Model the fold of this input.
Amino acid sequence: MKVTIKDVARKAGVSPATASRVVGGYGYVSRGTRRKVLAAVDELGYLPDVVARSMVTKSTRTIGLVVTDIANPFFAQLARGVENITWQNRYTLILANTDEEVEREKAIIQALLEKRVDAFIVVPASSKRAPHLEKLVQYGIPLVLLDRSVEGLAVDTVMVDNEDGACQAVSHLIRSGHRKIAMLLDNLDISTNIERLAGYRRALAENGIRVDDEFIQSCQYTCQSAYELAASMLKNPNRATALFTANNFMTIGALRAIYEGGLNIPQDIALVGFDDLEWIQFSSPLISTVVQPVLELGEVAGQRILARIKDGAGSPMEIRLKTRFAVRESNGVASRAPDNSE
Done:
């Protein structure tokens, strides 16, 4: 039996008009009500009428690109890479931001379905199971994940080799004489951070250095949160001699904390990052960092989604692009690096 918006409303305990606003992504609805309606949509497997119709009508030649925050230069460059490919093939992108919120991501997916997009490229807000994305696969709607993976979701995924990149960076610090190396990262529900943490741990293990959990600190994905946490870490009498930051926001926050703490890079503390955005080229000293092929990531994702639109057959592909480590001025040589070996 076909599930209707009335069924969703009844399940969520709201009016059909309220359920329609949530599914359509328009008008004000409280966060709690939105959560109940989206849960009902997931549980009942509701698919908007316009989506069902679009599956038997011609293409709209639009693709939904869902990222976490287009104000972040990393995601802006990803989007540019995707558009380089889709525009050449006469497809238009509809861009939306989730602000790293899964509930908002669910609402955006529903709203874009209402607009009858042909396919989705998604930077997921979480790497945990995502029924709202699984539903797209069940209905045969092309989906490519970009930059991050999702547990149990068998679709094309385009990422870099995060673990190898992190391992390269930390290994370089070790070769420079550092043994007390801290890591600053954000949300551990995201595959990129999980993999970069694995690379950090692998580098230490391969060099016989004990992993000290006190040196692994996480915070919210903002420069301010990174600054506050880094400042606290630097006040520790047993602080690390080197800091590895998992992304550009963590690097910016750490830089401010180091300078305001009256410390010099790399004389007092070494700093190595992950991401090589334009601002890093103007830092002083120049930050050593893991370089990602960001534009290429977006372009490959664009190529994959067009291939899936043309022919949805075939096994899902996991595409891992290589990173490289750019040695600059911030890693230094440890003059006094207390032994932390086993």
In short: The CA atoms of residues 1 and 44 lie 11 Å apart.
